[in-house]
Every structure is written in C-alpha cells, then in structure tokens.
Amino acid sequence: MINESQLLEQLKSDANRDSAFKELIRQYKERLYWHIRNIVKSHDDTDDVLQNTFVKIFKNINTFKGDSKLYSWMYRIATNEAITFINKRAKLLQITNEETQQLALDHLQSDVYFEGDEIQFKLQQAIAKLPQKQQLVFNMRYFEDIKYKDMSEILETSEGALKASYHLAVKKIEDYLTQD
Q1: Which of 87, 140, 162, 179 is 20 to 30 A distant from 169 in Cα terms?
Q2: Domains, the chain, with CATH or none
Q3: What is the pLDDT of residues 6-47, one digit of tens each?
C-alpha cells in the first residue's frame, strides 16, 4: 500500500494522477462513506455527497499545501459537503436543519442499508437532537475513533473545545437514552 506522501506526490503529477486518484479512492472511500453517512444518514444521499467530495478533492488537489494530513483535508471537504447538502435540502424543503435531520432519521428505519437494531436507532435519535457541532464531534470520536488532534485539523478548532463538545454530547445522549 502506498503511503500518504507518495500518493500526494503522484496525485500532483500529470503522468500518474489518474492511477493515483484511483488509489486514493480505494484507500479512503469506505472511511469517508461512513463519516458522511453519520452526518446525512441516508445511503443514497451519502453516495451523492461522497461523489461530490471526490470531485472536489480531484479538482483541488493541487491547492493542498500539506499544512495538515491529506486525510484531514479530505475529511474537512467531506464534512463541509455533507453540511452543505443538509443546508441545501433544508432550504429546498423550506424547513430548519433540525427538521431535515429528523426527516432523514424518519427514513432511516426503512432504509434497506440501515443494519442497526432498536437501540442503535434510539442512539441515532439522540444524536439527531444534538447541535450540529456536537453531532460531528460525537460521530467522529464514538463511531470513527478519530483522535482529538486529528479532529482539530479537520474541524479547525481547538482540542479543548472538541473535548468539551464531546463531553456535552455524551451527557445529552445519556440523558435522552435514560428517559422513561
């Protein structure tokens, strides 16, 4: 498997760009899929956002400066694309982002790609009630096990703020799950 710096070098080379991009997709497609899926909930919407994410990565790879890890940069693009998708859907349906999240959650149980049980669905309901930033931080830490240092690069905020957001999210989720 090719490492990140070699991959980046090949991506910026006209001769190797296409094969390097195929390798990039191979290495990161699944992780980015689940990251986006945790935000938008629907498999079909996730596929659309993932495709937009890779198009944006392909078009902008030459602007990547290397100030962060390549995967952090790609996660930031995926996160922004997912949030943009939710915002556009909310605007199109003339509802709030929270209502858009609830709508996605309502469709989640009937989604043939959702493999969770009742407890998993209840957890998704609790997560959907969180403010957007807390949702992102909780999903990235709990489901994807992303370190705060990496999350700090992706979300462009301090580790302390992320730890506080995660702690608040966990408390709110616990409260929701223990309600009668």
Answers
A1: 87
A2: 1-114 (1.10.1740.10), 116-180 (1.10.10.10)
A3: 888 888 888 888 999 999 999 999 999 999 998 988 888 999
